[in-house]
């Protein structure tokens, strides 16, 4: 029987990105990829990302987070999910712990992020510094300038979809800047081709972005391990960094995604701040039969 059976979870979303929050602090339990896939497959607990809260590892941090995509793969970062964890650790009756002036420091396998409340349902996350070197994204070949890389993408004939920007926010992103409305691209078809392109040894999140003003961007995202989502926080951060590097905008922008708007600032100290909403849809417990047949 899975140790996750009958455990309580929060069902949330951040700008439409479906998030499940699970608190495993005080236990030695670690979610397996198969368990994550089983949770995602259930209508009551379906998610784009599962955010699992563990006991802190590094002194001075409040918790360690493991982040699972729908396909069970783990990510080093999730902006929308981190805002939801901030809400859970500050407001949920069962999960909340006292916090210094409503701010938390969380750790993932990619490093530290800091989340703080702005209003009752809006939080700001310091997502840390972007990683811009080819081997930090990572890319399979040494591109000296990751502001634009060149891909050979046989099945895609639109040349603009051959030269993305590459940025990591603790997870890999390829951003294609287009003149036309991003909705005019069949991201459901080209997303998986690009996600799995051999230039991305750890796959990549695929964004199509239209800079619609000095500080406004329209964004559509195919997420690594989750597919089309209504919002992707790290993609919004990566896109603002990429656009700023290409001198298409200043260092801040409002990013419009299908599920909502995120405000992003790439600060002069190189940290990227993301501000956006959180929504609590409800809570539940994992039915034991969810994990039937899994050898856990
Ligand atoms: N699919 C992403 C993780 C979640 C990112 C997204 N949901 C966000 O809000 O940043 C990856 O595997 O890198």
TrEMBL record:
<feature type="active site" description="Proton donor">
    <location>
        <position position="78"/>
    </location>
</feature>
<feature type="binding site">
    <location>
        <begin position="223"/>
        <end position="224"/>
    </location>
    <ligand>
        <name>substrate</name>
    </ligand>
</feature>
<dbReference type="Pfam" id="PF01678">
    <property type="entry name" value="DAP_epimerase"/>
</dbReference>
<feature type="binding site">
    <location>
        <begin position="233"/>
        <end position="234"/>
    </location>
    <ligand>
        <name>substrate</name>
    </ligand>
</feature>
<comment type="subunit">
    <text>Homodimer.</text>
</comment>
<keyword id="KW-0413">Isomerase</keyword>
<comment type="similarity">
    <text>Belongs to the diaminopimelate epimerase family.</text>
</comment>
<dbReference type="InterPro" id="IPR001653">
    <property type="entry name" value="DAP_epimerase_DapF"/>
</dbReference>
<dbReference type="InterPro" id="IPR018510">
    <property type="entry name" value="DAP_epimerase_AS"/>
</dbReference>
<feature type="active site">
    <location>
        <position position="78"/>
    </location>
</feature>
<keyword id="KW-0963">Cytoplasm</keyword>
<feature type="site" description="Could be important to modulate the pK values of the two catalytic cysteine residues">
    <location>
        <position position="223"/>
    </location>
</feature>
<keyword id="KW-0028">Amino-acid biosynthesis</keyword>
<feature type="binding site">
    <location>
        <begin position="79"/>
        <end position="80"/>
    </location>
    <ligand>
        <name>substrate</name>
    </ligand>
</feature>
<comment type="function">
    <text>Catalyzes the stereoinversion of LL-2,6-diaminopimelate (L,L-DAP) to meso-diaminopimelate (meso-DAP), a precursor of L-lysine and an essential component of the bacterial peptidoglycan.</text>
</comment>
<feature type="binding site">
    <location>
        <position position="17"/>
    </location>
    <ligand>
        <name>substrate</name>
    </ligand>
</feature>
<keyword id="KW-0457">Lysine biosynthesis</keyword>
<comment type="pathway">
    <text>Amino-acid biosynthesis; L-lysine biosynthesis via DAP pathway; DL-2,6-diaminopimelate from LL-2,6-diaminopimelate: step 1/1.</text>
</comment>
<feature type="binding site">
    <location>
        <position position="49"/>
    </location>
    <ligand>
        <name>substrate</name>
    </ligand>
</feature>
<protein>
    <recommendedName>
        <fullName>Diaminopimelate epimerase</fullName>
        <ecNumber>5.1.1.7</ecNumber>
    </recommendedName>
</protein>
<feature type="active site" description="Proton acceptor">
    <location>
        <position position="232"/>
    </location>
</feature>
<feature type="binding site">
    <location>
        <position position="171"/>
    </location>
    <ligand>
        <name>substrate</name>
    </ligand>
</feature>
<feature type="binding site">
    <location>
        <position position="69"/>
    </location>
    <ligand>
        <name>substrate</name>
    </ligand>
</feature>
<feature type="binding site">
    <location>
        <position position="205"/>
    </location>
    <ligand>
        <name>substrate</name>
    </ligand>
</feature>
<feature type="site" description="Could be important to modulate the pK values of the two catalytic cysteine residues">
    <location>
        <position position="173"/>
    </location>
</feature>
């Amino acid at each position: 029987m899975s140790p996750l059976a009958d455990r309580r979870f929060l069902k949330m979303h951040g700008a439409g990105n479906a998030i499940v929050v699970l608190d495993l602090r005080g236990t030695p339990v670690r979610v397996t990829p198969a368990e994550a896939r089983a949770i995602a497959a259930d209508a009551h607990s379906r998610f784009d990302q599962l955010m699992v809260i563990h006991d802190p590892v590094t002194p001075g941090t409040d918790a360690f987070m493991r982040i699972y995509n729908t396909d069970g793969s783990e990510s080093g970062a999730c902006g929308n999910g981190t805002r939801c964890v901030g809400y859970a650790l500050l407001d949920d009756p069962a999960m909340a712990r006292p916090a210094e002036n409503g701010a938390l420091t969380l750790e993932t396998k990619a490093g530290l992020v800091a989340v703080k409340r702005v209003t009752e349902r809006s939080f700001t996350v310091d997502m840390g510094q972007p990683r811009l070197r080819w081997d930090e994204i990572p890319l399979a070949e040494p591109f000296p300038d990751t502001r634009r890389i060149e891909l050979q993408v046989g099945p895609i004939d639109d040349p603009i979809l051959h030269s993305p920007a590459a940025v990591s926010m603790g997870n890999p992103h390829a951003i294609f800047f287009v003149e036309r409305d991003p909705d005019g691209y069949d991201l459901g078809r080209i997303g998986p081709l690009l996600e799995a392109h051999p230039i991305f040894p750890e796959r990549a999140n695929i964004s199509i972005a239209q800079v619609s003003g000095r500080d406004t961007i329209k964004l559509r995202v195919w997420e690594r391990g989750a597919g089309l989502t209504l919002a992707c926080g790290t993609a919004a951060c990566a896109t603002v960094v990429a656009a700023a590097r290409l001198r298409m905008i200043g260092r801040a922008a409002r990013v419009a995604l299908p599920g909502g708007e995120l405000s992003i600032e790439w600060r002069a100290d190189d940290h990227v701040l993301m501000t956006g909403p959180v929504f609590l849809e409800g809570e539940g417990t994992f039915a034991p039969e969810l994990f039937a047949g899994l050898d856990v």
